[in-house]
Design a protein that fits this description.
2 domains, about 45% strand, Immunoglobulin-like, 22-stranded antiparallel beta barrel, 13 helices, about 1100 residues, five-stranded mixed β-sheet
Length: about 1100
Amino acid sequence: MFTKTGFKSKTRLYVACCILLYSQEHYAQQRQHQASDQHLESIELIQGSVSIASLFEQIEAQTGYKIAFSSALDPQGTIVIDKKNIGVTELLNKISQATQTQYQINSSLISFKKQAKQQDVQVAVASIGGKVLDENGLGLPGVVVQVKGNSESTFTDIDGNYTIQALKGKDQLEFTFMGYKPKSIVAQSNSITSLEQSYSELDEIIVVGYGTQEKRTLTTAIEKLSVSSEDMRQIASPVELLQGKMAGVSINTSSGNLGTGERVSIRGISSISASNEPLYVVDGIPLYNPSAELFNKGEAMSSLTTLNTNDIESIEVLKDAAAASIYGSRANNGVIIITTKKGKKNSSSVKFNFNTGISEFANKNKIKISNSKMFVSQYNEAADNYNTQYGLTVGDNDYKTHIYNPFGNLPDTNWLDVITQRGSFLNADLSFSGGSDKTIYYIGGTYMQQEGVIKTNSMKKYNLNTKLETQVTPWLTIGTNNNLAYVKNNQVPGPNLGTTIVARAIEQRPFDRPYKPNGEYYIGGTEELTRHNPVQILNEQEAYLDMYRYIGNLYASINFTPELSFKNSLNTDYNYTYDYLYYNEKHPYGTGVGRLVDSKRTITNIETENVLTYSNVFNDFGVTAMLGHSFQKVSNNTTGIDARGFPSASFDVVNVASEIKGATGYVTDYAMESYFSRVNLDYMSKYMLSASIRTDGSSKFAPDTRWGWFPSISVGWNIDREDFMKQLDMGAKVRLSYGSTGNQEGISNYGYQALLSGGNDYGLESGIAVSSFGNSKLTWEKANQVNLGFDLSFFQRRLSLTVDMYKKTTNNLLYSMPIHATSGMSSILTNIGSMQNKGIEISLGTDLDLGAVNWRSNFNIATNKNKITQLIDNNGEPLSIGGNRALQVGKDIGAFYLFVQEGIYQYDGEVPQEQYERGVRAGDVKWRDVDGNNIINDNDRQVIGSSNPKFFGGWNNSFSYKGFQLDILSTFSYGNDVYANWKSTVLGRLGDRMPVLETYYNNRWTHPGSTNKYPRAIMGDTNNNKNSDRWLEDGSFFKIQSVTLGYNFDAKVLEKIHLSGLRVYVQATNLLLLTKYSGWDPSVSPSLDARFYGNDALGVPPTRNVSVGVNVNF
């Protein structure tokens, strides 16, 4: 798209080089050659009524030519394209004839200007010189300078200078250039003319399922992010580039550790127990569960981290069902299409990107923990309260004794400092791209190394991305895309290990030490340390994940006629992971002899696709029809072993182990066959209709329920193309769509069948037994969604507004329904209910000229209301799903199931007798007695709060001044609750062997009237630390995600150093967080499951990074 940034990076330097190479003799030879061959070079276009701007964009994208034109040409005009492949010269002639302009080709620059008139009169003229500047005061090369009223014209040189024959003081000089407003002045010598950016949006080409479509004719809710170097920042996965950039798209991570997994939500939660993850499609290849099935022993890791963000050209998000339904049963949660870069015909490019910096634990000192004096004081007070309450004296069995600080006046240990460090990172990538008249190529290589903020956490990545496409004959094109990656992640001990390293650190008493004077470890779980020694855990364990991934395809495209084409693709997504986990004999889990847990998993996803496309134009009526078939098979081969007893850590192989404690292994697969079709109708790019249908058959379901149907229909009206709108300086479009999508992810490959498993021994005899019941009636989750959208623009598109309203209903929700224990099973998977999501999305974009400064801004905000509308019959009561969560009709997924605090008992006489008998006294929490029986039990829990925000969004601002550019990205969320689990288990437990927060110590209850919020210190408490709203906090926040200051060197400097582009920048990420939440970061949750999201166990927050970088174009 010819926007400000796109123009600068793609056009200016190239045009300048073209002008330097300009010569009249070459021009004459070029024109003569092209006149003799109307098909010197052909490009592929979308048939129908296509805007001239879109045609220019495709010429630039596919040929390497650059376009410049005078005000005589209106880029918003349209031309009917009646065949898919057309020669460049033939297309230029069409544009020239339709616009009554003439064009010329100077090297790689194609320029259009007003046609010369035969009656032009030659009069005495003088040579007049001047200079043209851009909005930053830099010379602007390639500007068309034309004398108004005749055919005299020229172009500015590399410095923006020009010379033209004109009548001084009489003639009008017109200045025109792609991406800038035309300007007219009276001809004067040595005049300096400044041009302003033009914000007339040229039509983008949007990648949709199994094809592309002009944005002007879209009838569905699709958003596109064109990725540029300004978007780059230190992230774990490419999808994080979308953070704060698109309304209705929410992205959160499980921690700030390296390579951590992400939670991507498009328009809310669609399932209870099946997947809520969108479908990812990379270069047309649908990926299989990129995050869900990585077998690892540390934290979950996103497999999308294998991709190189600098290789990405664009990311499209298919948000409504009409856009996503072409992917059928895989698209219930939306679709994210990632398109990587490719070469251009008759051009070559070499690019190098380098970035390095440091990272730190963000807001590490925010949580104030009691010092040794405070800890000892409250601990001993808790002991006294316990002894007094139960009448215990010295010598009694349960008498609680005082403790003291064994290290006297020595400084306390900062346990977070002990396990953390300053991290670092380095990223470098190099790419080569280009092509000839028949062949295009792209080769990109990446190297990345990182050191995390937790000691021992590090990661390396190697990536190679190649693309090759060649036109073998006029009717046959073949090609291949290949993305290979290797990632080694030395992981932090995470939830799957049964320990979280940060929690182990903050659980230690402030006076404790990691090492004894003799250098040995203090041992956790004893009188020496409260919990396992976190330093011992880090030092005496090696845990890493090796990941090898290949994403690629082979394809062939046949053009039977200009209107009819066929494409066959063989897609492969191969993922091999090797998990290594070794506990030295000194590790708490090393059992004194060393322990190795070795796991391997191979996932192979192979798919064949066949797509037949017909596209034609009948006068002003355009038709594009697509018919396709695909077959997919996914295989999973997993093995694992637990071995113990090694002679040393150097011999960590299974065959030297003295004991094989356990071994696992399984092979599963499933297949899916699909048929799909879509028809797009377009009349004059004014009225549009699109309809699609897909049917999927999956081996996961029984034969009678195996096939699902997913139709959609959408309409659009470009109101601004009506005659009554032509006098208004605005764009207006309305869209309406309805469609169906499905979900089968999260279902086992044999969910409809009863399964048997071995290892069920009876006495000395081995045997097998039923491991799970099947359900032959199991079927797809299916969602129906309606969407109404408006696209508006004003003031030559300086102001744009997009509004979408939707309602989505998901039926046949999959859920493991509890069954009677006498069956031998606890549950059976079944379809039991429905839920609803509805919301509004608003995006506002502005482009403002403030003198020498240009300000571009994009603000987006979205609201989504989730509600369960049907569940299994539970007499209207909440259905507990474990921990502090429950499901209930009328509530949303993400609601909490908690006791509610009503204050603190100030006197013993206030305590109900039933509770007094259970040890409740003055100073203890008073809970809401929902059923009024004076007994506090699970029946008194209530469904309250939600981890889902009331609204969320982002605000992206870019300021340009001369060669400088300042980019600020911020995100916000309002109304989401966070359960501070770390308080209920550690820092909020007064009287335990673990430290407490300063605020709990300073404000604890000590006597009647002292507080009505924090309870007393008491050992053996069974009342005050229930799962309750005591730990539920407002998680609303405003965050500055990144600030980037860059400088683009101008063409004059680049000429001297023989480069076509050079940008240097400095960047800071996670710079500022504003929130009432008492933890480090409310957006972090160790569980990315929608049912349990929003529980904070004090995971590492996203790190604060500072970096410098350079982007070089050779």
